[in-house]
């Protein structure tokens, strides 16, 4: 009598195979590529924001007006100076994402991209509807745009108590830090996106390429160990990097992963939320960071589709570690092999110039000074010039005063520069101007010191013909001037 019948080996193997396949994460969705996501940005860009420095009151209508079917909009508290901080929640899915921006007040690039994302989310019945529905069903996404509205309005990093919110995750001295901590604790997100801007002078490794976007899965201890929480963040970053390489090849770096026990990113990772840091850096000829805003939009939307699809689970940590580290090798302008004279010494040196912004009466102006000089062969410039066969020529002041800076167009100013004038005088005018040359009101001479910390202003000529002008840290090709938004102060 046969009481026991073993399963035939072949059937057993097939069953195991089916079981294993069933246990693999299934990709449910055909993900959009970089071109399609770029198209989504162009279609849904928030047109009312087109430069970095915007005020809290200007964008609050874009938050408050969204209360409706799509978003749940809640005021979660107020800043030191009483400005409202909101969270906005969208989607009904099981996986939770928390994105917060501008905890440093003067870092607004990701905030701009969040407003673009809100427009995308609210779009209807178009070629992106499938993605939208998929994200909505798989994810619950909570946004806290502008954690530091007081710093934002002053255009400073810190809050109104002069505290760096990103060093206040444990001490919680600031109301804004308390709000962010509570938001994380009550929501317990699976994934967190910590959105910042970094210096435009970061490069990708030792290359000349700017670190336009830097990424990091922050460490949760000094040993920089990798647990399952951090691993997931690293895997999502690998996918984001692949997508970004399509758009800005070689321009993605990895931020320093030293553990910072006071920072939010590091602690949120530690508290069990897979945390991704996105830092917006520099991009050539994009001072208002509008290209980088687009990259933020695409990177965030791609991260969302990867998380919803669980496609990130296939990414290898090797690919995370192979993203080059950030270096600090860029300057705004480098003039190489400049022919210099001091007393009896005739020598060549490179000069490296960095521009900085200073606030003035609700606006700002730019000053470009020499950051370093000598052998700058390990540095790169957004603008570079080899001046080996050029000579320095001092500029003249145009004799006849103009009524005000607006009496002259940019093109007319360039014409004057070609004739050897590096400055004009004006009788009156507002403190700031947008001309490529210097505008003198209170002083009569052109300052020009070729030494570190000083602002050099001069022409570079070849056999007596003026070829370039260096004005307040802007290098201007007199034959083919680029279209630049000059932000200068009258002197
Ligand atoms: Zn920051």
Automatic annotation (TrEMBL):
One MF annotation (Gene Ontology) recorded for this entry: metallocarboxypeptidase activity
Top-level taxon of origin: Bacteria
Pfam family for this entry, one: Peptidase_M14
InterPro entries linked: Peptidase_M14
Active site as annotated: 260
Biological process per Gene Ontology, one example term: proteolysis
SUPFAM superfamilies recorded: Zn-dependent exopeptidases
UniProt similarity note: Belongs to the peptidase M14 family.
Protein name per UniProt: Peptidase M14 domain-containing protein
């Amino acid at each position: 009598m046969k009481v026991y019948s073993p399963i035939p080996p072949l059937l057993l193997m097939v069953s195991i195979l089916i079981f294993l396949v069933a246990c693999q994460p299934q990709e449910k969705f055909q993900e959009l590529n970089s071109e399609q996501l770029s198209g989504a940005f162009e279609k849904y860009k928030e047109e009312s924001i087109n430069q970095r420095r915007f005020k809290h009151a200007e964008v609050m209508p874009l938050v408050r007006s969204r209360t409706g079917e799509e978003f749940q909009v809640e005021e979660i508290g107020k800043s030191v100076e009483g400005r409202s901080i909101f969270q906005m929640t969208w989607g009904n899915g099981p996986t939770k994402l928390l994105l917060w921006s501008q905890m440093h007040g003067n870092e607004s690039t990701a905030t701009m991209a969040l407003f673009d994302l809100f427009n995308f989310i609210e779009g209807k019945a178009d070629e992106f509807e499938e993605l939208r529905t998929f994200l909505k069903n798989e994810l619950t996404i909570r946004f806290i745009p502008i954690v530091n509205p007081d710093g934002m309005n002053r255009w400073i990093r810190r809050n109104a108590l002069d505290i760096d919110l990103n060093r206040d995750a444990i001490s919680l001295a600031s109301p804004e830090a308390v709000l962010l901590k509570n938001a994380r604790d009550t929501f317990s997100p699976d994934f967190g996106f910590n959105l910042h801007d970094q210096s435009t002078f970061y490069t990708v490794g030792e290359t000349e390429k700017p670190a336009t976007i830097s990424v990091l899965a922050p460490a949760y201890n000094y040993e920089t160990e990798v647990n399952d929480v951090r691993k997931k963040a690293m895997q999502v970053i690998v996918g984001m990097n692949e997508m970004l390489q399509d758009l800005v090849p070689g321009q993605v770096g990895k931020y320093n992963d030293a553990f910072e026990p006071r920072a939010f990113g590091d602690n949120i990772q530690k508290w069990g939320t897979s945390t991704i840091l996105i830092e917006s850096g520099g991009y050539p000829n994009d001072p208002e960071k509008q290209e980088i805003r687009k990259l933020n939009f695409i990177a965030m939307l791609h991260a969302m589709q990867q998380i919803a699809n669980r496609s990130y689970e296939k990414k290898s940590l090797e690919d995370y570690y192979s993203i080059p580290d950030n270096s600090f090798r860029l300057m705004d302008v480098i003039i190489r092999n400049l022919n210099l004279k001091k007393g009896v010494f005739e020598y060549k040196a490179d000069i490296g110039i960095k521009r900085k912004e200073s606030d003035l009466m609700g606006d700002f102006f730019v000053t470009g000074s020499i950051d370093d000089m000598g052998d700058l062969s390990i540095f790169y410039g957004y603008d570079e010039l080899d001046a080996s066969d050029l000579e320095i020529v001092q500029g003249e002041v145009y004799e006849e005063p103009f009524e005000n800076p607006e009496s002259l167009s940019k093109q007319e100013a360039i014409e004057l520069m070609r004739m050897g004038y590096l400055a004009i005088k004006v009788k009156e005018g507002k403190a700031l101007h947008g001309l490529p040359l210097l505008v003198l009101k209170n002083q009569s001479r052109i300052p020009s010191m070729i030494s570190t910390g000083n602002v050099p202003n001069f022409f570079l000529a070849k056999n007596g013909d003026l070829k370039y002008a260096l004005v307040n840290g802007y290098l201007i090709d007199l034959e083919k001037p680029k279209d630049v938004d000059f932000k200068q102060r009258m002197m």
